[in-house]
Amino acid sequence: MMLESTLYSVVLTVWFYRYVESTRQVESHRLSAVVKAVNNVDQSAVDISLSPRVNSVKPSKTVAISDLATALAQSGIPVIKLAAGEPDFDTPAAIAEAGINAIREGYTRYTPNAGSLEVREAICHKLKEENGISYTPDQILVSNGAKQSIVQAVLAVCSPGDEVIIPAPFWVSYPEMARLADATPVILSTKIEENFLLDPKVLQSSLTEKSRLLILCSPSNPTGSVYPKKLLEEIAQIVARHPRLLVLSDEIYEHIMYAPATHTSFASLPGMWERTLTVNGFSKAFAMTGWRLGYLAGPKHFVAACGKIQSQSTSGASSIAQKAAVAALGLGYAGGEEVAVMVKAFRERRDFLVQSFGKLEGVKITEPQGAFYLFIDFSAYYGSEAEGFGKIEDSESLCRYLLDKGQVAAVPGSAFGDDSCIRISYATSLTTLQAAFERIKKALVPLKRPARV
Ligand SMILES: Cc1ncc(COP(=O)(O)O)c(C=O)c1O
Q1: Residue with CA nearest ligand 1 atom 14
Q2: Where are the domains of the chain?
Q3: Superfamily of domain 58-87+337-445
Q4: Could you tell me if 151 and 143 are in contact, meaning their C-beta atoms sit under 8 angstroms apart?
Q5: The pTM is what?
Q6: In the structure, which protein residues have their CB atom closer than 6 angstroms to any atom of ligand 1?
Q7: Nearest atom within ligand 1 for CA of residue 250
Q8: Atom of ligand 1 nearest to the CA of 371
Q9: Residue 281 C-alpha to ligand 1 middle, in angstroms?
Q10: Does domain 93-331 have CATH number 3.40.640.10?
Q11: Which interval of the chain is the signal sequence (predicted)?
Q12: Which of 119, 144, 326, 431 is the most buried (most CB within 10 A)?
């Protein structure tokens, strides 16, 4: 027990200083490399300085807290992990079987860079049937996950100094991907009272001739908000007035959607096909995170440019995962019964959490219409003193407190561009969520009574 608690505090301390350290380290390594070079003391010294591009990118806080929670769990501390964006279900059997058969049948060689014709044809069929958008296989690029699809798109279309317009709260990687492309992320805030949806007037007033890419994510990670068709139409009208502006529509949570909400693909709106890069993938709806398969659909000119980047980096995605993806798309409309069962479970969990957190004093919450995240405003607790812990100043210290006192891992909202909230992933069983809620509730009790909101 003694050893456990020592390890626990060591790991927590490591987390606390991790971000500060990560930036400091680069600087001090650079300095010592330069000092060594100048003094010429050690002929074999290696210059370990890194490119300014890498230095401008922040490490992912979601990955950091997931790693920390895993380390604590491995050391025997019963942490409840609500940090990762990963379904808790197994890949449906029919999909897994298709992967196994691919190996058995020797489908284990390189595929074309853009993906096998079979999987690209299946994707075209899906996009036509489910999303009302027409593509030919040469307008599809299959990659090792939607993350790769997005970063390649950003790299392919942005020039240094271009602006990438990102509504906040945003998925952690968008601004960093913009920075990797030497572009400037322009963050547009939204309000919890407006379901975290982008106000078209805010968009309109933020666009300049430098605006190159607008990134939309619906259903959203981290808020679960779904853009209604009418709002997307208003956004499309604004976009249409800016000839340089493209839209990257991240639709990876498309199938995890709670009726009556419905999904609209941005590319299906009048005049938007030509300027939209649609991204989707298999990780979330089909519980295939480890298979690493996503895709981009768009005008050939842009897709070919992304393919060029891919051909000089990873080449084609896994042949086995592509066979599995064909089986996934064969499950039926929106993933058929297999996906419907998972969505039903997500919905039950969402309902439980929204109801439970909704009753806590000082907490603001919206009912997400999709994905499997809650983005909860706990800012009324900021400023509270916790005995033996110190002041809860922001989303990061609140998450550290919840991990310390409640042994629940959540992600600070600051990682997503909104410090008033924390993100909870409900991709875990209802029983675990019930236990997590009780722990959070208990951990909040000793905090000084929050100011009324
Ligand atoms: C909004 C969003 N887009 C893209 C991705 C990337 O998914 P993958 O690379 O697993 O296909 C994620 C994963 O967390 C996500 O949340």
Answers
A1: 85
A2: 58-87+337-445, 93-331
A3: Aspartate Aminotransferase, domain 1 (3.90.1150.10)
A4: no
A5: 0.90
A6: 85, 145-147, 171, 217, 221, 250, 252, 281, 283, 289, 294
A7: 3
A8: 16
A9: 8
A10: yes
A11: none
A12: 119
